[in-house]
Amino acid sequence: MTEIWSYLSHDPLLWLTATLAAYLIGLALFRAVGQRPLANPSLIAMVLLAVLLYLTGTDFATYFEGAQFVHFLLGPATVCLALPLYDNLARVRRAALPLLAALLVGSTVAILGTVAIAWAMGAGPVILASAAPKSATAAVAIGVSEGLGGSPTMTAMMVMMAGLSGALVVTPLMNALRIRDWRARGFAVGVAAHGFGTARAFQVNPTAGAFAGLGMGLNAMMTAILAPIILHWFL
C-alpha cells in the first residue's frame, strides 16, 4: 500500500480528483442541512483536504501541482460574473451614486480598519502590507501585497479568511439588520468578501449575486488605489 500511495501521490490527477470530490461532499452536506451558511461547501472542502494532506504527509507544492487547473479556472469564473451583471445593467445605472458611495466607504473601512488594528497590536511593515488588501479578490490582493512589500502567502491566507467569514455571516447579519434590498445585500458582501461572498450571494438570490460581482470587481480596483495611500499613513 505504501508503494501504491507513493506512486499515486505524485499523479496530478489524484489531487484534482480529490479537490473536486471534497467540494462535492461539501456541496452535498450544504444542501442536506438546508443551505445553512455555517455549512459552507468551500470551508468543508478545505477542511477535508487539509486532513487528507496531513494524514498522507503530502506537502502543499505536490498538492498544488495537481490542483492548479482549478486555480486557473478562477480567472474565467470571475469574468463570467459579468453576464448576470449585464442582465441587471439598467438597475445598476439607477443606483450608480449610492453604489459609488458604498464602494468608497466599504473599501476605505476594509483597508483602514484592518491596518489600524494590526498597527495597534504592534504588527510590522510586512504584516501591514500583507493585510491591507485582504478584502480584494485573491489575484488582485496578492499583486497589491507584493507591490507594497508584503508576503503573498500571508495575503492569500487573509483573503481566504475574509471571504469565508463574510460568506458565513452575511445572511444572518443582513436578516438581523432587516436589510431586504437584494442589491444592497449583494453589493455589501461583494465588497467585503470578494469571491466567497459573491458565491454565497448567488446561492441566495440572482440579483444579489449580480451586485456582489459588481462590488467585488469595483473593490479590487479601489483597493489597488487606496491601499498604498492608507498604508503610507501608518509607515
Summarize the structure.
This protein has 235 residues and is mainly alpha-helical.
Structural summary, described in words:
The protein is mostly helical and 235 residues long. The chain has 13 helices and no strands. Helix 9 runs antiparallel to helix 10, helix 10 (138-148) packs parallel to helix 13 (206-234) and helix 11 packs across helix 12 (182-204). The chain starts with a helix and ends with a helix.
Which features does this protein show?
235 residues, mainly alpha, 13 helices, 83% helix
Separation of the first and last Cα atoms? 54 Å
Q: Tell me roughly what share of residues is in helical segments.
A: over 70%
Shape assignment: globular
What string gives the helices and strands in order?
HHHHHHHHHHHHH
Mean pLDDT: 83
How would you sum up the major sheet?
Answer: none
Low-pLDDT segments: none
Number of separate structural domains: 2
Beta fraction of the residues? under 5%
Radius of gyration: 19 Å
Structural class: mainly alpha
Q: Count every beta strand, where a strand is a DSSP E run of 2 or more residues.
A: 0
